[in-house]
Design a protein that fits this description.
By secondary structure, this protein is of the alpha/beta class. It has helices at 18-29, 43-53, 69-76, 79-82, 100-109, 121-132, 140-151, 169-179, 184-191, 195-209, 214-223, and strands at 9-14, 34-40, 57-61, 90-95, 113-116, 137-138. β1, α1 (18-29) and β2 (34-40) form a beta-alpha-beta unit.
């Protein structure tokens, strides 16, 4: 992830349609401070390219032949992959579909953002910048769907128990540390990872659990039994 604004944001573009990729290249090359690190036409080639090129953001189509975007995202955001690359990589899912199933699958897989191909061209640049600097990005239609699901829970401040099963091993470690009151900097030292990595993990935890702040994360950790009173790190 770029350490400052002077470092260009490196983007890997993944789509099985060459014409779509060409359009994405033109859009990204017109964005100040953004460079196209490479292209890929399916999930497998995306993983190979990300391993070799070390992009900051992967713009990933969901529906592709062979390994689809959800499966590729799951690998690219896994603990095992992140341990092999020198920078924090985030995935922005780009699709023509806005079904709830596609949204949930992409977020469960570890995507940090989700926009529709029908969005205005400038939105892609804004989304890429948001992800490169540690934030997330959700298309308004996606946000409405998630808020609707959130509002229909019995207690909207507590994630459904099955959502914690979606967390990776490292995300669970970070959630436990958050529940013990550690700051991102303290978690970084505790787990021997960079501050940027911790920030990315915290953001993904919030997305996967459908929460918006650390207080809700602490509540989720204790009410799920992941952390118990008296536990020590």
């Amino acid at each position: 992830m770029p350490a400052d604004d002077a470092k260009p944001i490196r983007v890997l573009l993944v789509d099985d349609e060459e014409m779509v990729r060409s359009g994405l290249v033109m859009l990204m090359e017109s964005e100040p401070g953004v460079v196209v690190a490479g292209e890929a036409s399916d999930g497998e080639s995306a993983i190979e390219a990300a391993t070799r090129l070390h992009p900051d953001v992967v713009v990933m189509d969901i529906r592709m032949p062979g390994m689809d975007g959800v499966a590729a995202t799951r690998i690219l955001t896994s603990d095992q992959f992140l341990d092999t690359v020198p920078n924090v990589l985030t995935v922005l899912v780009l699709t023509t579909f806005d079904e709830d199933s596609a949204v949930h699958a992409a977020l469960r897989a570890g995507a940090s953002g989700f926009i529709l191909k029908s969005s205005a061209p400038k939105v892609l640049g804004e989304a890429v910048r948001a992800l490169a600097h540690g934030s997330g990005w959700l298309d308004p239609s996606v946000t409405r769907a998630l808020l609707s699901e959130f509002a229909h829970r019995t207690d909207p401040s507590v994630p459904a128990p099955e959502r914690l099963q979606q967390l990776t091993r490292r995300e669970r470690e970070v959630l436990v540390a958050v529940a013990h009151g550690l700051t991102n900097a303290e978690i970084s030292r505790h787990l021997f990872v960079s501050d940027a990595t911790v920030k990315t993990h915290v953001h993904r935890i919030f997305l996967k659990l459908g929460i918006s702040d650390r207080a809700q994360a602490v509540t989720a950790a204790f009410q799920s039994g992941l952390v118990k009173p008296g536990d020590r790190l």
